[in-house]
């Protein structure tokens, strides 16, 4: 096993492929593991994966590895580059805030043309994601992925500055069903929400309920709503009276573009957890 | 030893079972007719009937005749043979007109009686919509769908208009019911019903062909999962529709293919496309309100994310509803760019029931508290949209020709009432009962195409009208001008015996 990177399994696979080893996917459960059972451990796990994957890009650039085939280079790059999405997400989230605060339009486009392209794209993209994963994703899983922009940015900064981070084995200790207070980990999301509310007040005071303001407020609402499950999961709660049945969460596949996971038992699921008919 | 991955454990997946419902399907094999199950269904249907009738009586039934309605009345004033001739020279198909003439002969010739026919079609659509909705939704959510449908401002508007649009909705729902039945059961009786509804629909409105096309495309997309017999039968239905429609098509071509009466529309934009769905959900609102509503479109992105759920596979009925809601409108949009523009929201009305079903289906998948809150919100927004549409004087589709007729009541036999645009003469004459002669600017004999309007030529045209009238001592000419945007102004042109004297222009009260 490669011990130079905290995402040792990912890098080991890359080295093995580089040396000419072949790999096959065996759709059988060969080993079972426990997923993180609280927000802190989930956060640490995601940070570790992010840091490790970004190091693969910046220190072991898959595109330049000689032993890899073209498709392998692309697959490793795409798999690791998912963790760069945090910068895109926060930039996108800041666009409506900038407009509301300043009245400046960072992106000028025909709004309905954008809608006619983007809305079908979103629906089709999500459906394709579900089809390829056998419908295992949920809104909560996607919300967690989209809300992880801060840890992705900090991990990117750590990689670029070569700052050392400790390797913390993800704790698998179980709790009594209650949630400790991990709100300190979602301060950036809370700051964004507060900034958004302030920006809304500034924008409304400047131009009233104009169509431009409404469109940007709608975008702001989208980003804040996406962060809700993430923040709720970090917030404290009491243990339920009846202990829920323990649910073993399989460790998500490392090379999936979105780390689909249901990190917590259903009892700590946020309000937007969809139900089944 | 090589590993045959194909023989490895397959991921859990619903088997492809032709002619059977998918695993997430909630549609029953038949409606449960136990008393306990029947009572709330009947009660809600009666509620819907009450809502439709109430809306009609309170707001829409006694409105002024609309321009298109005046055309319906004029066309159905003729005998059946002459009616077919006039419709063949128009851009519509004749079934609604034939039914309307029969209705008027039986029940009366006034505009309210004509509108009641559309109301009958709207009311008849409710139980059929329920049956279609039950293919995708559980009973409570299907009942919500028909309540929202009954309150819908768009349906209230066209359910009270003497045109074929509520009939189009009814026949589309019937077609969709049979289509969903054939793709899930393959019963011969369902195929028969589907074929009959397809032929009938083709004679209700040309847009129905987009509905059939969407069904055909859906079937092609599902062809690998359906038995060959289904595709063969679908081809048979297509041939049947073609054969049944050919006589009318030939007759239509023999009468000039509506070259003289074809309306001139602008090529649709993305705004027009989004306005279709905005009007479906919120009705005809003023530009300001509509712009604000459409500006909230990013919420649809959140809806896309919130719609992601574990195990939430796309069953056959839901997949078809998605196709029914978007494919016909998209095809019309594309055709309006490639062939000729004809993109109007009322032509797309056949997609409205599918849109409602999709919205309710989305709500039904959320957590119960959120779903119930949003359901109440949907109902509230629908009702508010209807009320605002009825009460707001800035509603863009409002037409009031009664006011025009009242303004011209003071005209004497030697006066001349001139209307512009020329086609407004139809609804005007429905109300005008004065002594003055009525003509149009530009002058139109109602036989050929309408001449183009030239504002610079207006004074000379008025002079020519007065001279042609043979009345050199005319004192006033009232000209009702209907602007392209729907505004109405009354211009009163004063003229003397000497036609070369300057014409004074006096702006009168606004019409409507």
Total beta strands of chain A: 0
Regions with little confidence, pLDDT below 50 for 5+ residues of chain B: 1-31, 470-477, 480-512
Mean pLDDT of chain B: 81
What profile does the largest beta sheet of chain B have?
5 strands, mixed
Number of helices of chain A: 9
Radius of gyration of chain A: 21 Å
The overall strand count of chain B is 5
With helices defined by DSSP (H or I, 4 residues minimum), what is the helix count of chain B? 20
Largest interface: A-B, 47 and 45 residues
pLDDT averaged residue by residue of chain A: 81
Strand order of the largest sheet of chain B: 2-1-3-4-5
**Spans of chain A with pLDDT under 50 lasting ≥5 residues?**
248-277
Topology:
The complex is a heterodimer of chains A (277) and B (512).
Chain A: H1 8-18, H2 39-59, H3 70-81, H4 85-102, H5 111-132, H6 139-147, H7 149-160, H8 187-207, H9 211-234
Helix pairs in contact in A: 2-3, 2-7, 4-7, 4-8, 4-9, 6-9, 8-9
Chain B: H1 35-60, H2 67-76, H3 80-88, H4 95-107, H5 111-133, H6 139-151, H7 153-158, H8 165-184, H9 188-202, H10 208-221, H11 228-254, H12 270-282, H13 287-295, H14 299-306, H15 316-338, H16 352-364, H17 368-391, H18 401-407, E1 416-420, H19 425-431, E2 437-440, H20 458-469, E3 476-482, E4 488-494, E5 504-507
Question: How is this structure best described in words?
Answer:
The complex is a heterodimer of chains A (277) and B (512). By secondary structure, chain A is an all-alpha fold. Chain A has one domain (8-19, 27-237, 251-268). Chain A is 54% helix and 0% strand. Chain A is built from 9 helices and no strands. In chain A, helix 2 (39-59) packs across helix 3, helix 2 packs across helix 7 (149-160) and helix 8 runs antiparallel to helix 9 (211-234). The longest helix of chain A is centred in the C-terminal third of the chain and has 24 residues, at 211-234. The radius of gyration of chain A is 21 Å and the shape is globular. The N and C termini of chain A lie far apart (45 Å). Chain B is mostly helical and 512 residues long. Chain B folds into 2 domains: 35-391, no CATH class; 401-507, Pyruvate Kinase, Chain: A, domain 1 (3-Layer(aba) Sandwich). Chain B has helices spanning 35-60, 67-76, 80-88, 95-107, 111-133, 139-151, 153-158, 165-184, 188-202, 208-221, 228-254, 270-282, 287-295, 299-306, 316-338, 352-364, 368-391, 401-407, 425-431, 458-469; strands at residues 416-420, 437-440, 476-482, 488-494, 504-507. Chain B has a 5-stranded mixed beta sheet, covered by helices on one side. Chain B is globular, with a radius of gyration of 26 Å.
